[in-house]
Amino acid sequence: MSVLFETSLGDLVIDLEVETCPKTCENFLKLCKVYYYNLNAFFNVSKDFLAQAGDPSATGTGGESIWSYVASQNKGNEQRYYTPEISPRLKHVHKGTVSMAVAPSLPGQEKGGCGSQFFITLADNIEYLDGKHAVFGHVVEGLETLDKLNEVFTDQDGRPFKDVRIRHIVILDDPFPDPPGLLKPPSSPTRPPDNSTRIAEDEDPLSQLPEEEEERIRREKAAAASALTLEMVGDLPFANVRPPENVLFVCKLNPVTRDEDLELIFSRFGTIMSCQVIRDKKTGDSLQYAFIEFDKREEAEQAYFKMQNVLVDDRRIWVDFSQSVAKSNNVWSNNPKRGMGGGGRGQSGGFGGRDDLVKTSRYRDSEDTRDSGGGYGMVFDVPSDRDAGSRRKRSKSPQPKRERDRDWNRRKRSRERRRSRSPDRDRDRRRRDY
């Protein structure tokens, strides 16, 4: 009677001592049948000694017999362990001997026993284990796999740094009937039963990426860190915010170009939701760039390809997709009652409901936008009226216009007199020299 173990290091074929250890072999085969060992890790590997597995928690304290497993599935009560079958004839003489680990007695139990944990010897003549653990099988194929298992790197507790797992088990022959109440799962588990933080069994820790790929990954990580920093200081609504794909940025405009002019020119590509030429907040002069928001992304793409370098009001404009999130930030930071447009991150609007981030926003307030739906705010700081008033108090009072004109005329006449006297002064100096 044999089973095939497919591990991450290779295959192992184990012959079982069915006649000598019937209960142990039945327990082992039925645990294999219910996928109990699938994706279990070899959690204890000692070089030239043994490799231990069979504990779903990979801690050395878990595992149970098949009868305890069936009872737990049917909400019954059964002993966790069964009495080990230790035969004097079966000893740990050859490499590849398979034995059930005998657990010590637990509180409330008279003695310990065997559950699900087993180990495979990695060397010959380990007499220390004879009479202490129950031998029930031998590895007949896959000794090279045991050699690989013997050479893995482990920590001080014997746990391999890179997981070695039992991927799948195939039962080649099973002579025992199923215990009453045994339910076979419909499929093998897809995730390991333990929460391992080791190197994954299918991961190569020494693999190197091309230099370009490593640089790209480094840049992506740096960009993610910068975005998180901007989110923390309140300059972005959240770190994963992306610029809208239906908004165009138009620059190199003529100062005389108005919102209505751009809207009329770009409206042939689709429905325009908003069109705004950005202006200085104090003077109202055009800053010669604008944002145009289309209803659909396809319309914005068509306008981008068709309007690049087009002549508008004697200026060749430059069109690109907007990389600014100022419009989104206006909606979230300057009008917290609107929240996130329905079903957002925060419950009370703003940056997840945080008013402190709302106060630190550097964008233009919503009442200064051209429409009530929010616009594209200025990204530079504008002093408040309070600061401007304090500066006016510190500055001197302006001079009346009449006094400024009088001082200017006085200075002008003084310059003319000095200019008219200079030739006479030079003529008198020359006479004295002669």
UniProtKB/TrEMBL annotation:
Residues 177-192 have a biased composition (Pro residues). Residues 6-171 form the PPIase cyclophilin-type domain. Residues 409-420 have a biased composition (Basic residues). GO terms for molecular function: peptidyl-prolyl cis-trans isomerase activity; RNA binding. The keyword Isomerase applies. Keywords: Isomerase, Nucleus, RNA-binding, Rotamase. It comes from the Eukaryota. Residues 201-214 have a biased composition (Acidic residues). It catalyses: [protein]-peptidylproline (omega=180) = [protein]-peptidylproline (omega=0). CDD domains: cyclophilin_RRM, RRM_PPIL4. It is an enzyme of class 5 (isomerase). Pfam families: Pro_isomerase, RRM_1. Signal peptide: none annotated. Its EC number is 5.2.1.8. Residues 246-324 form the RRM domain. One of its GO terms (cellular component) is nucleus. Residues 177-214, 329-434 are annotated as: Disordered. Residues 339-352 have a biased composition (Gly residues). PROSITE patterns: CSA_PPIASE_2, RRM. Residues 353-371, 421-434 have a biased composition (Basic and acidic residues). It is found in: Nucleus. PPIases accelerate the folding of proteins. It catalyzes the cis-trans isomerization of proline imidic peptide bonds in oligopeptides. Belongs to the cyclophilin-type PPIase family. PPIL4 subfamily. This is Peptidyl-prolyl cis-trans isomerase. The lineage of its organism: Eukaryota, Fungi, Dikarya, Basidiomycota, Agaricomycotina.
